[in-house]
Amino acid sequence: MITAEMVKNLRETTGAGMMDCKKALAECNGDMEAAVDYLREKGIAKANKKESRIAAEGLSNIFIDGNKAIILEVNSETDFVSKNDEFKEMIEEIGKTILSGNATTLESALELQTKEGTIQDLIVSKTAKIGEKLSLRRFEVLEKEDNEVFGAYLHLGGRIAALSVLSSTTEEIAKDVSMQSAAMSPKYVFREEVPADEVEREKEILKEQAMNEGKPEEIAMKMVEGRLHKFFKEICLSEQAFIKNGDMDVATYVKNHGGTIKKVVRYEVGEGMEKRQDDFAQEVMNQVNGN
């Protein structure tokens, strides 16, 4: 006989709905462990149905332990879920698990063990429970020397995250650099990182602009050099005007505090991804109808 207490216990264990729990217990003749497996299998089926859906919302976060840090992005389908405490707790579990592990790729990270199975198992379980496609999109592990510091900054509750490594200065200065990166969205940290073909393409555009202004080619080429400097100031973090003091660039600000920029990583949730274009009213009706 399936009792209300059994259903209640299964719901608390799995987070599944009451009717699903009742059905699972009936299918498994009241065996609690078998019912948990049954629901998990059904959860996997539900999660797999969502694989083709777009998950371009979510949160990014940063986790630091001593000389090791991780920045990651975990996606959901809607912004509503990113405010869900259970979703945030899942990100905490994923972040701390990767931080304490030695994964270098998404594939190896998904195989790391959490309190609820692998990270992949955890994501599948939460996908079934929350009802949206969830995914670990990317992460990067940064390590520093003892004379270096991390600077971590989260903007808009994790819509944007920036993690920097600076040498011979303070965490406060490093955090300022991360804040600059979050606010100004540079494509690169140093001009040496800009691909040669991108520089050449920009030179050609600037030359055409100058020629179209009626300038002789010799003058146009000189104008290109000046405008190219402005181009680097816009896309390279180290050359951007510092947001707290526009009279100096970021590299100078760091140098004035005895430091050097080593690395900066910036994540913005959903950048480069296709966004959902759902009719919200229809989404609600689909939920009501069980679709």
Task: Please give the number of β-strands.
Answer: 10
Strand content: 15-25%
CATH homologous superfamily annotation of the domain at 53-143: Elongation factor Ts, dimerisation domain
CATH topology of the domain at 53-143: Tetrahydropterin Synthase, Chain A
- Please compute the radius of gyration using only Cα atoms: 25 Å
Shape: elongated
Seen as an oligomer or otherwise, the chain set is: single chain
List the helices and strands and how they pair.
Blueprint: H1 4-14, H2 18-27, H3 32-49, E1 57-65, E2 68-76, H4 79-82, H5 85-100, H6 106-110, E3 113-114, E4 117-118, H7 119-130, E5 135-143, E6 148-155, E7 160-167, H8 171-184, H9 196-212, H10 217-235, E8 241-242, E9 245-249, H11 250-256, E10 260-268, H12 280-288
Antiparallel strand pairs: 1-2, 2-5, 3-4, 6-7, 7-10, 8-9
How does this model look, in words?
The structure is a single chain. Strands 1-2-5 form a three-stranded antiparallel beta sheet. The protein is elongated, with a radius of gyration of 25 Å. Among the domains are: 4-49, Ubiquitin-associated (UBA) domain (Helicase, Ruva Protein, domain 3, Orthogonal Bundle); 53-143, Elongation factor Ts, dimerisation domain (Tetrahydropterin Synthase, Chain A, 2-Layer Sandwich); 146-182 and 245-273, Elongation factor Ts, dimerisation domain (Tetrahydropterin Synthase, Chain A, 2-Layer Sandwich). The chain has helices at 4-14, 18-27, 32-49, 79-82, 85-100, 106-110, 119-130, 171-184, 196-212, 217-235, 250-256, 280-288; strands at 57-65, 68-76, 113-114, 117-118, 135-143, 148-155, 160-167, 241-242, 245-249, 260-268. Strand 3 and strand 4 form a beta hairpin. With 291 residues, the protein is α+β, with helices and mostly antiparallel strands. The chain starts with a helix and ends with a helix. The model has no long low-confidence stretch (mean pLDDT 88).
